[in-house]
Amino acid sequence: MTINVKASITGSLSTTGDLSTVLATFASAVAEISYAQGSGAAEADKAFADTRTLAASTTEDLDLAGSMTGIDGLTFAPAKVKAILVIAAAGNTNDVHVGGDANGLAGLFGNVNDLIVVKPGGAFLWAAPSGGLTVTAGTGDILQVANSSSGSSVTYSIVIIGASA
């Protein structure tokens, strides 16, 4: 297994004045993390990926301590989480909330009630080349995902990369 996580922002801005047009281009520093096969620093050996739908005003708890199936068809129960990507479908009306569970992954958020709001068509990416987030069964193993409101369902895609030790 080789996994690459990459994030960057590039673009241009054009403004028109009375006598000229100015075009400014920019490129951010690229954050790129590669994981080799294994369970140590800069290594990963567990992966979960799925596209899921939540009914209006519902919440689901993704239990990282063994109730999910990884992309290899085996139980997904990483000891450490190394990367998380959540992409909200562009056609959603409601937001996708990530986090906010009392038994959430320690270190992902400042407080257990904190969450990330992923707007329709938006994304949330978290990654760490070493260390990662420790999964502790019963007290620190939940990644909660919620539909922010009533009226319509939301669809989101999620990828979680982990290590067995």
Rg from Cα: 18 Å
Strand elements, count: 16
Number of helices: 0
Helix fraction bin:
under 10%
Order of helices and strands: EEEEEEEEEEEEEEEE
Distance between the termini: 16 Å
Poorly predicted regions are: none
Helix/sheet category: mainly beta
Query: What characteristic shape results from the CA principal axes?
Result: globular
Please state the average pLDDT score: 94
Largest sheet, in brief, is: 5 strands, antiparallel
Q: What fraction strand? A: over 45%
Provide structural commentary.
The protein has strands at residues 3-7, 10-16, 21-27, 31-37, 43-44, 46-54, 59-63, 68-69, 75-76, 80-88, 96-99, 115-118, 123-127, 133-134, 142-147, 154-163. It is mainly β and 165 residues long. The model has no long low-confidence stretch (mean pLDDT 94). The chain has no helices and 16 strands.
